[in-house]
C-alpha cells in the first residue's frame, strides 16, 4: 500500500515557471534548474483542471456532469494550426498578447497540445502545458496568454456559460470589475498580499 497514487492529470497537464528568454514562444522555456508547479498551486490561482477521455467526448458522462454543474451550455471547437486557422500568424500573435477576459476561459484539448501561460501572485509567468485529454479553466480576470508548442497543432473544445463572448482585454485593464474581483479572491487572499501592487502594473 505504501505508494502514493499519482494524479491522473499529470499525464496530460504539466506546469512550470518560465525563463526570461525571448526565444521562440513555442519552446518549453524551462528555468535552469527546472521549477515545476503543483496542481495545488494552480488551484490557489483559480486555475482548475481535469483529465478526461478525449476519445469519448461526445458521450463522456464526466464531461456532461462538469458542464451541468458549471453551467457550460455553449460548446464549439477551435483548431489552431497554420492549415486550419485563417490569418494564422496574426491570430497566434494576438493569442500571445497578455490579456484577460471578463468570463472564464474553458478549453478541453481533444487533440494536439499547447501552452497556456498565467501570472502567479508575484507576476512570474507559469507555463501550463496541456495535451490530449486535458481540460483547463482559467478564471475571469486572470492575466494570461496562449501559444502552440513546437508541434504546431491543437484542437480544443471551447465551453461557455450562455452566449460566448471571446473579447480579450490586453494588459493593462486593472480597472475592470472582473480583474478587481480576481485580485481580491486569489491574489490578495493568501500570504498578506502580492509582492507587486496589481493596481500599479
From TrEMBL:
Binding note for cofactor: Binds either 1 Fe or Ni cation per monomer. Iron-binding promotes an acireductone dioxygenase reaction producing 2-keto-4-methylthiobutyrate, while nickel-binding promotes an acireductone dioxygenase reaction producing 3-(methylsulfanyl)propanoate.
Cofactor requirements of the protein: Fe(2+); Ni(2+)
Residues at which Ni(2+) binds: 99, 101, 105, 144
InterPro entries for this protein: ARD (IPR004313), ARD_euk (IPR027496), RmlC-like_jellyroll (IPR014710), RmlC_Cupin_sf (IPR011051)
Membership in a protein family: Belongs to the acireductone dioxygenase (ARD) family.
Record membrane topology: Peripheral membrane protein
Species in which this protein is naturally found: Salvia divinorum
SUPFAM superfamilies associated with the record: RmlC-like cupins
Protein name: Acireductone dioxygenase
Amino acid at each position: 500500500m505504501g505508494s502514493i497514487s499519482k494524479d491522473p492529470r499529470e499525464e496530460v497537464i504539466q506546469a512550470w515557471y518560465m525563463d526570461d528568454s525571448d526565444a521562440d514562444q513555442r519552446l518549453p522555456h524551462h528555468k535552469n534548474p527546472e521549477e515545476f508547479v503543483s496542481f495545488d498551486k494552480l488551484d490557489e490561482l483559480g486555475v482548475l483542471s481535469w483529465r478526461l477521455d478525449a476519445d469519448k467526448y461526445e458521450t463522456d458522462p464526466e464531461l456532461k456532469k462538469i458542464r451541468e454543474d458549471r453551467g457550460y451550455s455553449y460548446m464549439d471547437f477551435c483548431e489552431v494550426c497554420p492549415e486550419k486557422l485563417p490569418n494564422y500568424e496574426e491570430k497566434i500573435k494576438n493569442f500571445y498578447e497578455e490579456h484577460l477576459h471578463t468570463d472564464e476561459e474553458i478549453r478541453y484539448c481533444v487533440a494536439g497540445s499547447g501552452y497556456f501561460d498565467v501570472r502567479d501572485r508575484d507576476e512570474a509567468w507559469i507555463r501550463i502545458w496541456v495535451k490530449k485529454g486535458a481540460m483547463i479553466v482559467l478564471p475571469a480576470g486572470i492575466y494570461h496568454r496562449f501559444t502552440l508548442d513546437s508541434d504546431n497543432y491543437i484542437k480544443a473544445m471551447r465551453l461557455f456559460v450562455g452566449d460566448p463572448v471571446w473579447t480579450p482585454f490586453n494588459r493593462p485593464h486593472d480597472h475592470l470589475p472582473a480583474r478587481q474581483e480576481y485580485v481580491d479572491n486569489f491574489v490578495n487572499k493568501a500570504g498578506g498580499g502580492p509582492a507587486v501592487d496589481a493596481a500599479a502594473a
